[in-house]
Protein 1
Amino acid sequence: MRFPLLFSVLLATSLHAGPVAAQQTPSPENAQVYFIWPHDGTVINGGKFWVRMGLRNMGIAPKGTAVPNTGHHHLLIDTDPPPLTEPIPNDRNHLHFGAGETEARVELPPGKHTLQLLLGDKDHMPHNPPVMSKKITVTVK
């Protein structure tokens, strides 16, 4: 029978090929994501506050929506950007706003925290080139 041999060859070939890189969605060169509020250096009394996110030269669309030049916000808290060729993680340091939110109520413990915005495409992949804000610092009292 040739099928077991064919299956073995296909299996060996697929294992040898390595992982398949995800396709990145292009973004316009002039796209910009930014914080409307808070600003860099803001002191926040109490742990709950609103984060307001802005975007220029692109549009907001919920996850799963395949429309050119759109994406949705991800808030990076106290972390560096993830690998820009992989999907953005979803954990306490990487908040996803896949419904297309442009503002969110966030709660952080007292202390200094860094915040950064990263736009993701329909599959939570960073665009190419990435649409990422400057990292800001806030202090929660």
Protein 2
Amino acid sequence: MTLRRKTGAAEPGAKSRRRRPAAALAAVLVLGGVAGTVYTLSGRGHADVDAGEGGSLSAEGLVACASAVAEGRVTEARPAGTGSGLRVVLDVDRSYKPAGGDTRRLEFTTPEPDAERYYRVGARMLVLVPSQEGQAPSAYRDGDAPPEGAGDALDWARTWVKKAIPQSEQLKCDENEVAG
């Protein structure tokens, strides 16, 4: 028995069908990389914030440099008025900083360009509002994927905030060590 190779013209579309899985895989990898980079650079769900040229603040430093850390539900999100940004109102269920504060409502402004899509009315989240004006808050929304591990971004943030609070109370914002 002799094996014969087909030497005629290939079936139309056969070559392109073989390329489709490879092209689809490449597109998924590229889009996944871009999405991961955007997510990390947006500061959402990320335990570190930019601290200038040296690196980023530790989790304790991030909490120490926050004017408020609270968990609750977004009740209002509207344009800030002057300049760009969004004014967000959070109906506070739990205040981490100030500890046990009587604050039932937290208002802050975020300069992020995509803030309207993220801070939706009704969304439950934990927010760290930086003490320096003009900086974007760090926010962790219920139902979002956490930056590390499995589970939920809100649960993940709640865990690391609770862990960071004791050491953050020993720091002043300008004394924070910059982690590389």
Protein 3
Amino acid sequence: MDHNGHQGHFGEHFTGVLAAAAGLTVAKPVPDCDGIDLTIGYPGRLGHLRHPAIQVQVKSWSVPAGSGSHWNYNGLSERQFNTIAGRDLRIPRFLVLVVVPPEQFDYAHADHEALQLSHAAYWASFHNHALVEADSATRRHRVEIPKDNLLTPKVLHDLLVFDPEAEG
């Protein structure tokens, strides 16, 4: 597996580990038709919803850049952005950005006390964003991801009842 494939594989499993820690289900769409990497769900009733689910596009990044409050990610094509943006989605979709170390053997550290995954994952919703008209598969669309949107098991749980209309 090449470096990018390995890094992306780790990013998806990093996200899956967070979902497992939250007691959520994880499914990988087969075939991958539209860039959605994982469907994450709750097996039962959560608040007023039965079997709520979200879909996520997972991106991994080993050279993060941004401002004090946001990551400035330029790794989405316009088509990938359009897959997760807009108001006409029946199942909420999110971008999960997993920031990883540059070296693969630094992705995880294990000893007799703990397994530590490096570094962290962040989430963003683009529900209130307009689609990109050109919809190019090669032209990049830069997005900002708030550093406050740290993805944790509790946050993943909360995203299942996310109300995009309340999003600021």
